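JOB MANIFEST
job_type = single_chain_structure
chain_count = 1
residues = 82
[input]
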Amino acid sequence: LGIEDEHQSAVYPNPNDGTFYIEGAARDIQIFSMAGQRIAFESVTTGDKSEILVKGIVPGLYILRYREGHAIRSVKIIIRQE
């Protein structure tokens, strides 16, 4: 409808080496490969900031999906060689 969502979170750094942050009220976090496979990860949430740790995957392009309020966000993330 052309209405901007004023509470959009930030995902950084991108690209990253398997550790990145979601700043904002992110819930139901999921990471998928480009083939649609769910990727395992660890997360630590402090207030409105989540630290995401992805280990042991092939460097490449992945989809981060999470819920923020009533919206579902999808962000492309690039994981490079550690």
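[summary]
The two ends are 41 Å apart (CA to CA).
The chain has no helices and seven strands.
exit_status = 0
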